[in-house]
Amino acid sequence: MRALREISFPPRHSVAGVLVSGATYASATASILQAALAQRSALVAATSVHGLSMAAIDGSFGRQLNSFDMLTPDGQPLRWGLNLLHDLGLRERVYGPTLMLHVCEAAAREQLPVYLYGGRPDVLERLVKRLPLLVPGLRVAGFRSPPFRALTPDEDRADICAIRDSGSRILFIGLGCPRQERWAFWHRSQLPMPVVCVGAAFDFHAGTLRQAPTWMQASGLEWLFRLLMEPRRLWRRYAKHIPIFIFLLTREYAFRRMLRRPLTQPVRGKA
Fold this sequence. Notes:
By secondary structure, the chain is an alpha/beta fold. About 50% of the residues lie in helices and about 15% in strands. The protein contains 12 helices and 11 strands. The strands form 3 sheets. A 6-stranded parallel sheet has the order 5-4-9-8-6-7, with helices on both faces. Strands 3-2-10 form a 3-stranded antiparallel sheet. Strands 1-11 form a two-stranded antiparallel sheet. The longest helix has 29 residues, at about 230-260. The two termini are about 15 Å apart.
């Protein structure tokens, strides 16, 4: 019988009730690669202000997020929150699109095929062509753009079978929050591979959506750039979720000031 190997994940820390990982690109990529090499399930999501706010509004979604092995600080506000509440000294966020490239580079080195699930059909077709150019040596074992509606049981089973039968060792999901995280949670037991939720990364790497300038990303103003690019789609989201996050973070900071103690939960998985 094959001996079990331990898969380690960065420690998690509460930010507004969600356990966000104090990860770096190196540590996050290493954990995902360990799970891929061991062919073990692992749930990973690049988590933003939107995700934390949704978790506060919907308790079931919050519990699902907290069952993930790793939630990386996708946005600067989450990095700031981790540093403010837990004094981690993180120097950079772990941004979903960039994490995806780091993981793809590691997969190419180890000759591990990847699967792409999500995005519009035209976006996914462009991504499948562009991604191997961005990461030479990467093999895309398969891809699927599911309809933007609830799948029938037969469709759902067919998608899972296609992913498993493709020979892929890492699954990237680009369905948007909270749909992608819910999908990953529901299918965890059926997928012996790391499932990495990366949001709009498919659009960025396909070249169908512009990323914010580096200085705006570094200063936490990416939300403003995206709002200017997609005002009709995003203004309600930002108007709702940014104030909720600010309130939750302020409340937790005040609470911790009173208690004078951090809440940290180390996470370890077995493989």
